Amino acid sequence: xxxxxxxxxxxxxxxxxxxxxxxxxxxxxxxxxxxxxxxxxxxxxxxxxxxxxxxxxxxxxxxxxxxxxxxxxxxxxxxxxxxxxxxxxxxxxxxxxxxxxxxxxxxxxxxxxxxxxxxxxxxxxxxxxxxxxxxxxxxxxxxxxxxxxxxxxxxxxxxxxxxxxxxxxxxxxxxxxxxxxxxxxxxxxxxxxxxxxxxxxxxxxxxxxxxxxxxxxxxxxxxxxxxxxxxxxxxxxxxxxxxxxxxxxxxxxxxxxxxxxxxxxxxxxxxxxxxxxxxxx
Length: 281
What we know:
about 280 residues, mainly beta, four-stranded antiparallel β-sheet
């Protein structure tokens, strides 16, 4: 693969890249904003929050969902730009909420870390599903730092990164949105997978902060491609006009909020993102 190029930089830390409406949307933790950048590097700030936004994704009708770090709720951005509460989550956990992925029915899967991060003593996390009416139910437990998630194009499987277990874990998805048949999808020994994305060949790209790279892996743990970076890679997404641009959010780690080392890097990938990502994002 070619060397990646910087699409934009000059921020502290980005997270949760999503390709949507011909731009890459991402969370800017340092500025506590959700922003969007086009392929020429032009940035627009689209939402301001009181705490940094952990992650974002889109409902089928295009409205944005945001998981703020410390607010105990899932927010929704309305067409006029206002932010409203989509779901209250404090009854399920008082620990930070993390990554999001949304299915074609509008069910949002949201991971809960299970412990204070950074600095807290580790405890297993959980995964909840938030229905379109805002009702939230726990659907998985005992997750070792639940992180990036993807749904397969048929909506029948969910893959989640367990960062502290060095693996990708898969579940079967029921018609009612519940999860079952938990299994190891891929072991990632020595890597702590963070944000992930899925391509049309069934491979997953995962970001790895400590080893400063983004890795493409097949179910069963076969490594197919690796993009080495000069700083930690926190998340990745496939997008662009043909779905074959791999976007990687990177920054120096440990994070120093006084230093703007954040970058979004782009490189051509061997396969396009799945239809789920390319239509909804």
